[in-house]
Each structure stands twice: as structure tokens, then as C-alpha cells.
Amino acid sequence: MTYLRLPSPYRLIQLLFLILLTVMGLSILWEFELEAWVMRGLGLPYDGIFEDGERLRFVLTSTGFSLIAMIGPGVMLIKMISNARRNYLQLEGLQSHTEKLARYDSLSGLLNRRAFMELVNEQLAQLEPVIVMLIDLDYFKAVNDQRGHATGDAVLIEVAKRLEEIAIKYGCIASRLGGDEFCVVFTSRREERELGLIAADVISRIGAPMLEKLRPFRQGATVGISRSWVDATETSALLHCADVAMYRGKVTGRSTYHFYETEHGLQYQAQIDEDAALKQAVELNEIVPFYQPIVALPSQEVVGFEILARWLKPDGSTGMPADFIPALERLGLIPMMTQSLVKQACNAARDWDDHLHLSLNVSAAMITDELFPDRFLEQLRHEQFPFDRFEVEITEEALVGNIEAAERNLNRLHAHGITVALDDFGTGYSGLYHLTRLSIDKIKIDRSFFEIGKTDHRPMVEAILGMARSLNMKVTAEGIEDFHSPSLPSWLASNGCNYAQGYHYGRPQAHVSRSVAGVPDSTVLSRV
After folding, report:
1. Closest Cα partner for 444 from 394, 387, 503, 483?
2. pLDDT digit string (tens) for 227-240?
3. pTM of the model as a whole
4. Transmembrane region positions (predicted)?
């Protein structure tokens, strides 16, 4: 910014005082010297016999009038200069603040993405080495979702402080690219071994205990590293390579670091294509509900169906949940998929017998979302599906992150008549604690207790059934196969098991036979 040279009010007063002295000096010079010369020079009569007092009175009079004449304009000029200086300083401060905002992230105080790109562009233009270490926080979305954005901002500020320490220690430049993505840039050559040690130090520092309010959340970081002239020669490409390397760490365990390799770039692009296909599948309802029957014991009459997701791909193949659910969780598409499955299933069940219910497993992120109960109940109202015919299944893993939120949400669902079942019971570490605290109506004994040759698990199953009776809970046994019949179903019924589910009673099917659904037609529409 060009500096404006404005005198201060004090300098202006000094200037006015100097002008006044000049007027007085000129008046004295005129009265005592110049007036006689001028008059004689003009040939005019001049009587030089005056008293000095008269001369001094003229000097004081002329000086006084000059002072009076300067007071008004002087005061106005001082005010104008003061206002101009104040406005200039404000403008200068605003410009300085604007320049800072243009280069620095307002939350963390680190260089922002624009400044990062300019820095790397300048280095590459000068053919100087550039090493980009991209840092993405692990599990940060869960912090924002379950602890709020204020806590998330506090985490980002603390991470920025730790990265500034890293920058000072290793002579690099730290920046925040956006969200929970940070970067440190090295503008000098570094050996791969040294970079590995620095990346490990970054991961260690960020993973160290951070905020008391974060517990029990884990906090960590995954790092991807790319190098100029080795991996890329252009800024955006260099950043992309670091992103590919970082993504490899995300899918192989997190809280680790990787250098970019061409092979990973091909895998990364394939993953991007797969993600795009999955997003389209959810939007176009290509992920559809399959129904597995749940039977009552000992009658073995079908009383409901569990909704299981299947991806009907454009090539005619069918994708299983293990192939696409983790990706949907990573993309944050599980709620959208769940809403679609519920809508399709409610429409399919609209003409079923009134005693048949639907059961659906709900993800950890959804069951701890404060808005989930209202959205879910509103959808069932919209689909005109009775609350008491719907069962929500949860796993113990879904409860570990935020059991308080899960408890509130389950209570609200339970209060509206929705059944709550604890799935995969027996595989978690705190099942009894959850049973006593949460609104659980039913437990589902995990299929691992009924694997072939696992007769030694019978005492444990018997104990679970006895516990359920004492807590007035229903029990469903999962994973009942053909080889279990008829001994296992009979044994389960005799020991108080209420329901069973498994291939023995039916595999997941795209449509429910009309006879099973209570409609007088024995045709099975399709079965998988």
C-alpha cells in the first residue's frame, strides 16, 4: 500500500506558529526599514519622525489580525488532517487484515490453500525441490457429529499448534487446506528415511491425548507423501499424488504414512469409479431389499422378515453387503440407502398379512444421530406402516462411541411401539451392561454359537436363554441351517427360544411369496 504523507496536528500548529512569526518579522521589517525605502523610491513624501510605540502598535495589530485570520481555517485544517489520518490508518488496517485473510486460515492461523498453492507453484517454477506431506485427521467426522462443531474447531486449532511445532522443528511450512486436511511443505531435499521419521513424528504428536472432552474418541492422522520431479511436476498433480498415498493409509488401517506409488494411483482411480457407481446405485434405487424369513418357535410359522441390502448391478450381478457397505459408510451414504430400503420394503409389505413385521439393522452413526428418531418415525408415517410392525436392530459396536445418545434415541423409538433388538449378542464385550441400561426388547444370538460342530456352545446358549427369560426379553437364534434340523430347533424351543432365522427357513429373497405374505397365491415371485 502506498503511504500517504500527512502532517500531524502538532506539526500543523508548529507551521501556523512559524507563519505568525514570519508575519510579525515582516511587519517589523516594514515599519522600521522597508517603508522608508519604498516611499523614497516612489518619490513620495515620508515623515520618518514617528514614535517607536506607534510602530510597534502597527506590528502587533497586523500580527493579531493575521492570528485571527488563521484560527478558523487552522482549526478546520487540523480536523481535516486528523480525520484523514484516522481514515487512512483504518484503511491500512483493513487492507492488512484482508491480505492476511487471503493467505492465512482464519481458524487455525496457518497458511491457507491459496497460499500453499502459490508457494508450491513458485518453488516448481524455480526448479526447486518440493515435498508435500498431506495430513488427514482420523475419525474427525465422528467428533463433529457427536461432540458438535465447537469441539471439532477446538481439535483443529490444537492440531494446528502441533503442526506449527513440527514446522519449527524440521524447517518446513504448515498449512490447512480445508476441513480436517492439513499439509506441511518442505522446500529442500530430504531423504526418504528422514521423511518417514518426520511423518511418524507427525502421527505421534497428533495422536497424543488432546482434549478431555474428546474421550473416549480416538484421535489420529493418516499421512500421504509426494515428491516433486519424482512423482509429479505440477502443483495440483503433486497434491493429488499425496492424496492418493494418504488414501492408501486410510484403507489399510489409518494412523500411518505412505509414499506415493504409481500402482496406488491406478487403485485410487478405480476406487473413485466404484464410489461414483455406488452413489448412483443409491440414487437410482439399485440397492434393493432382500427378505429373509424369521419364524416363531416351536410352530416354525413365518412372523416377519429381516431386510438385507443387495446391489443389483447394471451388468446383472448382485453385490453383497460386505462388498459395498464399508464404502457407503465411508461416503456417508448409509442414511440415504437405509431410507431407500425402508421405503421399498414398506411398499412391498403394504399388502402382507397384518401379523408380519419388518426388521432392519441400523448403523452406528444413525443410531447416535439426534435427528434419527424423528426422521425414521416420519418416514414410517409417510409410508403408512404401523410402528408396532417394525423392528430396529443394533449391534454392540454401534453403542460404544456414544451410548448416551443411543439410549435417548432408542427410548424414543421404543415409546412409539417400535421393537428394539440387540443383534449379534454374545460377541460383544459388555452385553449385560447394555441390556440393563437400554430399551431392548429382543436379543439375537449370534450365528457363531450354532456353527457346525460347536455343540460345546449349548451351555452358553442355554444361559443366554435363561437370562432373557429373567429380563422378560424375546430371543431370536440366527444362523439355523439345514444340518441343524430337527434337533437344534426343537432344543431351542424347549429351552424358551422364541424365534429362529437362517437358511433352514429360507434364504434372502428379492420378493416374498404371496402365500407366505398371507395372500392366497402360492407362486414364489423370485428367490435367491
Report:
1. 394
2. 998 888 899 989 99
3. 0.60
4. 12-30, 58-78
